[in-house]
Design a protein that fits this description.
298 residues; alpha/beta; Rossmann fold; 10 helices; 14% strand
């Protein structure tokens, strides 16, 4: 994470990151808890709002940038990560957050996730996973369970769900976590830890849809069933153990950090800057460049 900041940490509170725009989510939506956790995490980080860029796709969760005082960009469906990567490369000192839903991230935008991971750009990607398309009135999403009856699958889904945790772990993500608004303190700490990680960080948030979601996915049910990885004695430095636990996605609700690389690799923006610095030593002068294209006289 870049360290540019304008004021001491103690000058910022959660309220400093909250805009005057009133959220229009359904009452009880899990995303209310997610945005509150983001406010808390940013206050602990202590970066000025104008040093933060918040990028999103399309969907209920993608409204989040408008509810913050950071620079925000509500992009097109599934394209939040390409925009976020461009912003980070153009201005590496910005703290860049990316938000979206399970449909935005693992359907139309699924191809971008793998490349953001392999580049290891210093972005924190927060996915609000409710296993349904909420904004478009309750269709199947990539993470919907097999057999689920929805507006687009009246007889039940015939498809296996995407496992976001295994997906990103398999592509080599260096920071992978999962939380829920049912544990606000834990979620805020997790988001803060992801932001502080020097590289691509993925946080899957089980954020229930109170309108189209299933009863066993609501906050009350989550509180009763969630289990912290820390209580299991999980070592977040063990990728294979993380992948083993991630296989329980959709059956058990594990919360906490699944994997955090003990030796973070170089970020793409750092390598790009080093390449630029190295190339500057051999840059031709303007006159030399013009001479290359000047017509030769006989």
């Amino acid at each position: 994470m870049s360290t540019l900041t304008a004021k001491p940490i103690e000058d910022y509170t959660a309220k400093d990151y909250k805009s005057d725009l009133k959220p229009i989510w359904c009452p009880g939506c899990g995303d209310f808890g997610v945005v509150q956790a983001i406010y808390r995490a940013l206050a602990n980080i202590g970066r000025a709002p104008h040093e933060i860029a918040f990028i999103s796709g399309i969907g209920c969760s993608s409204r989040i940038p408008g509810y913050t005082t950071a620079y925000g960009f509500n992009t097109v469906h599934g394209r939040s990560l390409p925009i976020a990567q461009g912003i980070k490369l153009a201005n590496p000192d910005l703290l860049v957050l990316c938000a979206g839903g399970d449909g935005d991230g693992f359907s139309i935008g699924g191809g971008h996730v793998a490349h953001a991971i392999r580049r290891n750009i210093d972005i924190t990607y927060i996915v609000m996973d409710n296993q349904i398309y909420g904004l478009t009135k309750g269709q199947l999403s990539p993470t919907s369970r097999r057999g689920l009856s929805t507006a687009s699958s009246a007889l039940g889904s015939m498809e296996s769900p995407v496992n976001p945790l295994l997906y990103v772990l398999g592509y080599g993500a260096e920071f992978v976590a999962q939380g829920t608004p049912a544990d606000m303190n834990g979620l805020a700490r997790m988001i803060e830890e992801g932001i502080r990680y020097p590289g691509f960080a993925f946080i899957n948030v089980q954020s229930p849809c109170v309108t189209y979601g299933q009863e066993d996915q609501m906050l009350k049910a989550q509180k009763a069933t969630m289990q912290s990885l820390e209580s299991l004695g999980h070592d977040p430095a063990d990728r294979l153990a993380a992948m083993d636990l991630a296989q329980a996605y959709g059956e058990k609700l594990y919360t906490g950090v699944f994997f955090k690389h003990p030796e973070p690799g170089p970020t793409f923006e750092r390598l790009a800057r080093e390449r630029q610095d190295a190339q500057r030593a051999s840059v031709k002068s303007r006159a030399d460049v013009l001479n290359v294209f000047r017509l030769k006289t006989l």
